[in-house]
Known about the structure:
The complex is a heterodimer.
Chain A: E1 3-5, E2 19-21, H1 27-37, H2 41-45, E3 56-60, E4 63-64, E5 80-85
Parallel strand pairs in A: 1-5
Antiparallel strand pairs in A: 1-2, 3-4, 3-5
Chain B: E1 7-12, E2 18-19, E3 34-38, H1 40-46, H2 49-53, E4 83-85, H3 87-93, E5 97-102, H4 113-126, E6 131-135, H5 139-151, E7 154-160, H6 165-172, E8 177-181, H7 185-199, E9 202-203, H8 209-214, H9 217-226, E10 234-238, H10 243-257, E11 267-273, H11 278-284, H12 311-320, E12 325-328, H13 330-344, H14 350-364, E13 373-378, H15 403-410
Parallel strand pairs in B: 5-13, 6-7, 6-9, 7-8, 10-11, 10-13, 11-12
Antiparallel strand pairs in B: 1-2, 1-3, 4-5
Helix pairs in contact in B: 3-13, 4-5, 5-6, 9-10, 10-12, 11-12, 13-14
Amino acid sequence: MPIVRIPTPLRKLTNNLEEVTVSGATLGVVLDELNATYPGLSERIVDENGVIRRFVNIFVNDEDVRFLQEKETPIQEADVVSIVPAIAGG
Amino acid sequence: MSTKPWFSNLKCRECGRLYEKEAIHICEFDFGPLEAAYDYDAIREVFTRELIESRPQTMWRYRELLPIDGEPTVGTQVGFTPLVKADRLAKALGIRELWIKNDSVNYPTLSFKDRVVSVALSRARELGFKVVACASTGNLANSVAANAANAGLKSYVLIPSNLEQGKVLGSLVYGTNVIGIKGPYDQVNRLCSEIAGKYGWGFVNVNLRPYYAEGSKTMGFEIAEQLGWKLPRHTVVCMASGSLLTKLHKAYKEFIDLDIVPKSDFSIHGAQASGCSPISTAFKAGTEMVKPVQNPDTIAKSLAIGTPADGYYAIRSMKETGGSCEDCTDEEIVEGIKLLAETTGIFAETAGGVTVACARKLIASGKIPKDESAVLCITGHGLKTQEAIVGKVGEPRVIGPSLREFEALVADEVGAKS
Lengths: 90, 418
């Protein structure tokens, strides 16, 4: 099953798990499933209109989903989804 | 160590939720960035021009507006770089009055990053970190490595593996752990975000970001003080993540609110390289939605951040202050470096070339009116990015140690004859 990496600020909602496995054919479905298992998680990631929040970056296998198909991005069994907060410059 | 009351909390810039002053950087509820919050009423009671002027000429003379609890312990000599009146450059660009804020001679690593690192590492010590780290396009790595070395902290710096040699050597020499990552800065950033949570290190631009970012304000405070306690009408600054621009804005606003300077109109303008201009592109398109650049391609590697964390806020700052935004090609960057050097004697890195080139466009287009005054912020030294100008500034003419050869060489040059 696809693995989702949970950033530190959200681990309070995942019993401190760094990684969880969630099934789903697209990123949107994965996020919905994630929320079913860990209630409250998806509202932190997407806003009230269902759009990925401005300060959240989501990567599927190291590729920013904004360069893929955003929430419609297909997810394969072996994929790794990372949720990463925006970071200041350097 | 005394506990000062001025720095009160961390606060989400989006929803305003308050957090304790820990090593955290984003809001748990909306991922908004956390920012240092202060008790301005308490600060107002003590913070005056006279107090500031009574202190040593470093960035710490504004310490009430910096987010640490006790006395600074790292980078105590950073800042107060020259503000240089640049009459010859003003003439070349066709503007009445021009100043250069020259952070290319910031101490100790010749870029404005010493300001942010000074705050971040002072705070890292207060929070008990023994290991500090950063994701960097070069200048931040240099500064973390140097300041950590001086403070006796262990450090790791993660950089894109293709950086300029000056920036790589300028980290290695301090005995830090340099890790080159195959990929652009945004990938380094992503990796660091994952590392920061795992190893418990103090990452200056990840979990220490709220402290780090505030250090940039001191550039704005100094500009205002050095202009004789007034704000510049126009400020032009280069943008990577956009953080510095937003902090100049905050600095100017804080000085107005605390009655340190009189209220006056000011505009802040942003400059990017066309090969990585997500903020400029969004600004010009009239949107606040910053579309990431997947494969940045510019000689201004220190600005090559495709996913600028503060892009949204930078656009809001430019709009709110009536500022504007430009970008420039690699050729224009080199021309900017040369023009600055030839008219002011200041050798800027590629990012400085971006600032000069974009200022030229902003003045030419009237976005900065020719009869007004502007400050250009030069953020790093040209010795760090020498590759960019190799072969573009001429070569030495080589002769034997012979008077005849020398005279033949300069015979036709105007003014060479005594």
